[in-house]
C-alpha cells in the first residue's frame, strides 16, 4: 500500500503523520524523533542489533542511526535537541529508547489527541510541546541537558547561513574557541559530529525547496549539493526517505493552513 503522508514543518522541527508507512531506511538526523504507533507494531532497528517489534512509542536521540517502520499508521514528532526537545535528547542521547509506563502513556495520549482534530500548524506545535513535556526535567530519570551557550550561538549562526557552509574556524573564533574545541563541545552535547549538523541544515534547505514545488535539480542547488543524485543520497541518509516521497507528502507550512486527517 502506498503511504499517505501529511507533514507540518514547525520552526526547527515538525510532525509527520503516515498511514501505511511500511519499512523505513536506516538514517540519522539532527533532531530528536518520537514515533508513536497508532495501529499495529513498530519494527525498530538499532545499529548493531537485530530488529525488534514493539507497540510502544520509540524515542531516538539526535544523530543516532536507526530505522523505524510500521505497516499501520504512525505519528512522529521531531524536536530540536537544543531547545524544545532538550529533555528528550538528554533521555535518549546516543540511543534508541522504547518508552514504558506513564511516560509512554503521556506521549501516546498527546498523539491521539492530535489525531482527533485537524492537522494544521497549531495542532502540530501543540503535539510537539506536549511530547516535550513528557521529558521535562524533574527527576533523576530525566537528566537536564546542559549545552554550552557558545555552541548554541554557533549553531544559530550556521542555521542563519544555511545552506552556505561558512568556515568553522572564524565561526568558532567568534566564540573564543578553536575549531577543534567547538567540534568537541558539540559532540559532547549531541553525541555526533558537528559536520553532521551542517549536512542536516543543507538537507532541510533542499527539503523546503522540494516542498515549495521546486524541481529536484534546482532543490539540490538550493541546498548546496553538487547535483540531484548527491541530494538524493543525503536525504535518504538523513531522513530515511527519498526526494520523491517528500515531494508527494502533503505539507502544512502556514499557520492558517488546514487539511483533513489521514488517520481517523
Provide a descriptive summary of the structure in words:
This protein has helices spanning 86-92, 101-116, 121-133, 149-161, 168-173, 179-190, 194-211, 216-222, 228-239, 243-248, and strands at 4-10, 13-19, 32-37, 42-46, 52-54, 58-60, 66-69, 74-79, 96-98, 119-120, 250-252, 258-259. It is built from ten helices and twelve strands. Helix 7 crosses helix 8. The protein starts with a strand and ends in a 5-residue tail after the last strand. With 264 residues, the protein is α+β, with helices and mostly antiparallel strands. Strands 9-6-3-8-2-1-11 form a seven-stranded mixed beta sheet. Strands 5-4-7 form a three-stranded antiparallel beta sheet, with no helix packed on it. The longest helix is centred in the C-terminal third of the chain and has 18 residues, at 194-211. Residues 255-264 have low confidence and may be disordered.
Radius of gyration: 18 Å
What does the oligomeric state look like here? single chain
Proportion of β residues? Answer: 15-25%
Work out the number of β strands: 12
- Report the span from N to C terminus: 17 Å
Amino acid at each position: 500500500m502506498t503511504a499517505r503522508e501529511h507533514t507540518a514543518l514547525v520552526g526547527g522541527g515538525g510532525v509527520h503523520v503516515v498511514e501505511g508507512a511500511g519499512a523505513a531506511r536506516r538514517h540519522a538526523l539532527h533532531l530528536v524523533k518520537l514515533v508513536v504507533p497508532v495501529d499495529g507494531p513498530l519494527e525498530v532497528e538499532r545499529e548493531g542489533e537485530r530488529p525488534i517489534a514493539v507497540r510502544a512509542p520509540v524515542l531516538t536521540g539526535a544523530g543516532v542511526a536507526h530505522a523505524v517502520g510500521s505497516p499501520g499508521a504512525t505519528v512522529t514528532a521531531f524536536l530540536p535537541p537544543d531547545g524544545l526537545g532538550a529533555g528528550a535528547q538528554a533521555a535518549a542521547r546516543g540511543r534508541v529508547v522504547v518508552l514504558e509506563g506513564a511516560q509512554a502513556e503521556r506521549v501516546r495520549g498527546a498523539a491521539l489527541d492530535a489525531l482527533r482534530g485537524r492537522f494544521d500548524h497549531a495542532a502540530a506545535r501543540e503535539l510537539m510541546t506536549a511530547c516535550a513535556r513528557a521529558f521535562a526535567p524533574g527527576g533523576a530519570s530525566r537528566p537536564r541537558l546542559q549545552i554550552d551557550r557558545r555552541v548554541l550561538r554557533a549553531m544559530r549562526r550556521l542555521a542563519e547561513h544555511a545552506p552556505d557552509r561558512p568556515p568553522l574556524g572564524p565561526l568558532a573564533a567568534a566564540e573564543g574557541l578553536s575549531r577543534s574545541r567547538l567540534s568537541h563541545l558539540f559532540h559532547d552535547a549531541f553525541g555526533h559530529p558537528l559536520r553532521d549538523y551542517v549536512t542536516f541544515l543543507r538537507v532541510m534547505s533542499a527539503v523546503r525547496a522540494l516542498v515549495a514545488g521546486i524541481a529536484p535539480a534546482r532543490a539540490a542547488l538550493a541546498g548546496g549539493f553538487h547535483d540531484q543524485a548527491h541530494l538524493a543520497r543525503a536525504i535518504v541518509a538523513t531522513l530515511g526517505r527519498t526526494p520523491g516521497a517528500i515531494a508527494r507528502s502533503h505539507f502544512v507550512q502556514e499557520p492558517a493552513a488546514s487539511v483533513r486527517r489521514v488517520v481517523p
